[in-house]
Amino acid sequence: MKKQLGFFLAAVSLLLILNGLTKVHAQESLYKRLGGYDAIAAVSDDFIYRLATSPDLKKFTIGLNADSQRKLRQHLVDFICSATGGPCFYIGKDMETAHTGLNITKEEWNIGAGLLAETLDKFKVPAKEKEELLGAVSSLESKIVGK
Prior knowledge:
- By secondary structure, this protein is mainly alpha-helical.
- The chain is built from eight helices and no strands.
- Helix 3 crosses helix 6 and helix 6 packs antiparallel against helix 7.
């Protein structure tokens, strides 16, 4: 009887621990679920490369000197890091101000969103996290398109 009770208590304890771990994982920020700073930096680098080499979008990066390229990259990393619950602090301009004068069209927006999705697929970002990140980005469309 003692052996069965011990087994039962051990099984219940294991279930409680696993349940607790599941809840902790479910409460993790998108930043952590994406893999943290280094993963966001790698995604940003790939995405910027895709933008800079896209026949339809490279016009937005042509002419950037090395310093401007580094600033663009760091602003993107910090923005994504901050927006996903990470420890970064975004000090760039708000999205509307940053994109004013670029006259980004809906078609260009869609191409860019597709390139971001391709980047996320390249890094095998799980579907839930990919959907959350793309959803967060899509909420910015009205602040970027046509400005």
